[in-house]
Amino acid sequence: xxxxxxxxxxxxxxxxxxxxSDAAITKLIMHLKSAGRMKMLPAIARELRKVAAxxxxxxxxxxxxxxxxxAAALRAAAQMGIIARHAHVNHxxxxxxxxxxxxxxxxxxxxxxxxxxYQKVTV
Amino acid sequence: MQSIIERIEKEIASWAPEAGAxxxxxxxxxxxxxxxxxxxxxxxxxxxxxxDPTFDRTLAEALKDPxxxxxxxxxxxxxxxRAVILGDASKIxxxxxxxxxxxxxxxxxxxxxxxxxxxxxxxxVDGKGPTGATQTRPIESEAYGVIDRASVNVPLHTGVKAVxxxxxxxxxxxxxxxxxxxxxxxxxxxxxxxxxxxxxxxTRPICIYVAIGQKESKTAKLVAELEERGAMDxxxxxxxxxxxxxxxxxxxxxxGAAIGEHFMEQGKDALVVYDDLSKQAVAYRQMSLxxxxxxxxxxxxxxxxxxxxxxxxRAAKLSKEKGGGSLTALPIIETQEGDVxxxxxxxxxxxxxxxxxxEANLFxxxxxxxxxxxxxxxxxxxxxxxxxxxxVAGKIKLELAQFRELEAFMQFSSDLDAETKKxxxxxxxxxxxxxxxxxxxxxxxxxxxxIFAATNGYLDSFSPEEVGAVEKKLQDYLAREAGGVLxxxxxxxxxxxxxxxxxxxxxxAFIARYAKLQG
Lengths: 123, 519
Description:
The structure holds 2 protein chains of 2 kinds. Chain A has helices at about 1-15, 20-35, 40-55, 70-80, 110-120, and strands at about 60-65, 85-90, 95-100, 105-110. By secondary structure, chain A is α+β, with helices and mostly antiparallel strands. A 4-stranded mixed beta sheet of chain A has the order 2-1-3-4. The longest helix of chain A has 18 residues, at about 20-35. The relative contact order of chain A is 0.11. By secondary structure, chain B is an alpha/beta fold. Chain B has 17 helices and 17 strands. In chain B, strands 8, 10, 11, 12, 13, 14, 15, 16 and 17 form a 9-stranded mixed beta sheet that branches. Chain B has a 6-stranded antiparallel β-barrel with strand order 1-2-5-4-3-6. Chain B starts with a helix and ends with a helix. Strand 4 (about 105-110) of chain A pairs antiparallel with strand 1 of chain B, so a sheet runs across the interface.
């Protein structure tokens, strides 16, 4: 039952409409009160936190090795279906960029390439 | 140095960024060798995943420890997957990137594994360097169907007289070895492996010994014994010791089966010993409980029967069209206090084509191997038994069963008639003849000759206490004086009229000489 409530709220949150979300939560609390199930609220909140953490982990994320590569990286990632607002600088990439979203990873970094070559040469 | 530089330059020149996207997940939680992963929505059951330790490190840090850790997807859930970690679980952390490998768990197979000790992932653990195997094979595969199989008709000689005479095993059969701890289960399996040395190289089975949840010292001792006896020349040891993660202990028998199937599909014979499946079941129970699968009887998961049936069903004798190879399975099950009606023993008994039941009482009485003939059975092996063995050992099982009944009766009655006494003495003599120490498997022709002597009354003049010593002398005598007959039996696989005549002459001569020596 907690799962059902969580999923309903999750679907509402997907709309990213604050008013709709607030209304949904108000209605849920009213429903829980009338059904005498207010004790479920902490569990629902816990589940929602898990969902939020999962979404955060799988959110669109573009990294570049240098700031100057950001625009090109965002464009390239968008062409491949990963749309992010801005790119994060990660010097460990050495050169190039990588993007991930919802379990999809595109890695065009020099670090990946060098590791690949290292593994091929040493094995 | 120049060649290394050239190689690196070649790799750099040929490198191009991978255009496509790959599917990845993120570790949400980890513990007890299990990782909960967000994402990987398209992952398949039993698919391999790779925990990438290099993803969130700098290149310098990544090069210090670039080795990936593999995982096996075992639970597909609505919002992620659960995977068992097939390596050092302490290196897995929350937020770690997990890559899909788009392939089912596979291991390297091939001739280069022969003589090696490997783990269930096919990695060498004997300190002799990589195995060099280039072919791979999925650990899980579907068993051959009815059309692809032939009936079991070639014997697999164990070198253990009691087994070869009364519970014969055929190539492609699944024969369970069951008994309490310390009753000699492993000894029968190891003797069987050692005995294959007496087979011609062309038909000698490749032997795969799978050690599950055992002490590493025991496995090391066993490998040393196999090496000393020259049996590692045609053997492979797969080990998942007690210190290995439960996932590896669960996978070990499947790895052994995959290696064996490779040889079977090449038209060769293979023998695989699973020592033991009780420990595999315990490892699978541990994994299943950690994966939050519902527990059933004795807390084992509901699919524990399927776990063993799909493994043992892979043993087969293939039809000629499929190459005629075979995979014989000797699973071992350890019972508690002789209880064969426990969950796992009954499951495996019902799956296999017979069982060799070893009893602690018989072991303590000094009988080796401590086989309880009454409840040991081979359901298909008799079809594969050689004519020679059928001829000499036809009635032994019945006679021994009768002897056991009379022996029980004897405890209540001290006054026995002559006929009963005679039967009891004959039973005792036969028990002594079938007694055989560990590590001394006999070639099939020698077994046939000894049993021929016993069943044709040549040893009736000796008391049961003397028979053991007489048998040893007889073995030496036959090896020395009756080589021709033994070769004839070995080649024809039967005791023909002329062989029988010569064998009788040799036995008469032995008895006369022995009696003369005893004076």
